[in-house]
Amino acid sequence: MGAGHQFEIEAMRDKKNSLHPAWSAVGCFTLVGLTTLGYFLADWFIGENLQKGWIPIPREWAWPAQSPYLLVKLGAAFFVFLIGSTLFSIVYTLINPPKPGKFDVTDPSIFPPPPRHRK
Question: Which stretches of 17-115 are DSSP H helices?
């Protein structure tokens, strides 16, 4: 009962400290969902911008012909991803604030000064 018992205890300990699958889904949504949302928002914005002329976008950026303004769409998708993940992190931190760790000093006035060594 020596080696097998030790393996069982380590496996239980590893399972206890593992990440819950729901957080993997949230991370997947943040990465894939926000980037896709940014791409479609950029597509909508470029269509509206061509009609209403809010921001002048050079016609040279309308390449490749199969997907006009591809670099603009990818840049907007990246920008939406950055803003969305930042907002998601802020909301998560407000809902679930970080707790002090085992070795964090929260109030230095409660600790006594280090002992003096006398000769």
Answer: 21-28, 34-52, 70-95
Q: What is the pLDDT of residues 38-55, one digit of tens each?
A: 899 989 998 898 899 998
The label of the residue with tokens 């593992």 reads 18
pTM of the model: 0.62
6, 10, 13, 36, 67 from 16: Cα distances, Å: 16, 10, 5, 34, 48
Q: Where are the domains of the chain?
A: 68-95
Dump pLDDT digits (tens) for 66-112.
Answer: 888 888 889 888 998 999 889 988 998 898 888 777 777 766 677 67
Residue type, 61: W
Closest CA to 46 of 71, 83, 81, 82: 71
CB atoms within 10 A of CB 69: 22
Question: What gap in Å lies between CA 109 and CA 105, rounded to an integer?
Answer: 10
